[in-house]
């Protein structure tokens, strides 16, 4: 079946998994492991897994609500699918889900995970804490349930659940994952750091964009990771300097919502990785 991750992601890079499939084929990584220290929509990981490119995926979600969602997908898929089936998509329900996400300590992991999923599907640009009445983009009114096709979402979660024994889920920061999890993984592993930086968009992530964090993370990646790795950031000269000497490419980020000149991304690659000769990975297609 065609796979779409249940969580929307503001970057809107739906064709990037094709680039990673070519990476896996060119580097003898097929049937290996794939790691996302900043897992959010997990679209690349689940695409690779459900289409048989990797044998295991490792998802790390530092955001407790995002972790709760993926925990529910893996451990309570039936209850999650029932919640999707039963939900009435109304303004009152939207407010109730907002309240749950703002006071997660008063709710179960399933309720918290469902709330972030519901708001991610409903809100404009996948924003979690926005105002649904602000649903106008480029002169067009945002349809309330435009991204909440219950049947497709349930089928997608059921499809992921069929592979849940191959998904390893963690709830720690990226530094902890590098130090505690990566040393135990095989050489045949690719680690993808899709660094969330645009905190003003109020997406699925917390703020990981301080200068100190960028510097310390770059040092840790370059000195501690023995497996293949890729890092992506919004394109900025300071990022290039942090990874000086490593192969890089710059590509456009397609977005349905905004067209801004700064919407390009830099990808940095570990030195041993064979990189396909493509100008724009987001335009790639594979069978």
From TrEMBL:
Reaction it catalyzes: a 2'-deoxyadenosine in DNA + S-adenosyl-L-methionine = an N(6)-methyl-2'-deoxyadenosine in DNA + S-adenosyl-L-homocysteine + H(+)
Keyword Transferase: yes
GO MF terms, alphabetically ordered: S-adenosyl-L-methionine binding; sequence-specific DNA binding; site-specific DNA-methyltransferase (adenine-specific) activity
UniProt KW keywords: Methyltransferase, S-adenosyl-L-methionine, Transferase
InterPro entries: Ade_MeTrfase_dom_2, MeTrfase_D12, SAM-dependent_MTases_sf
Keyword S-adenosyl-L-methionine: yes
Highest rank taxon of the organism: Bacteria
One record GO biological process: mismatch repair
EC number annotated for this UniProt entry: 2.1.1.72
PANTHER family membership: DNA ADENINE METHYLASE (PTHR30481), SITE-SPECIFIC DNA-METHYLTRANSFERASE (ADENINE-SPECIFIC) (PTHR30481:SF2)
Family the entry assigns: Belongs to the N(4)/N(6)-methyltransferase family.
Name of this protein: site-specific DNA-methyltransferase (adenine-specific)
Source organism per UniProt: Nitrosomonas oligotropha
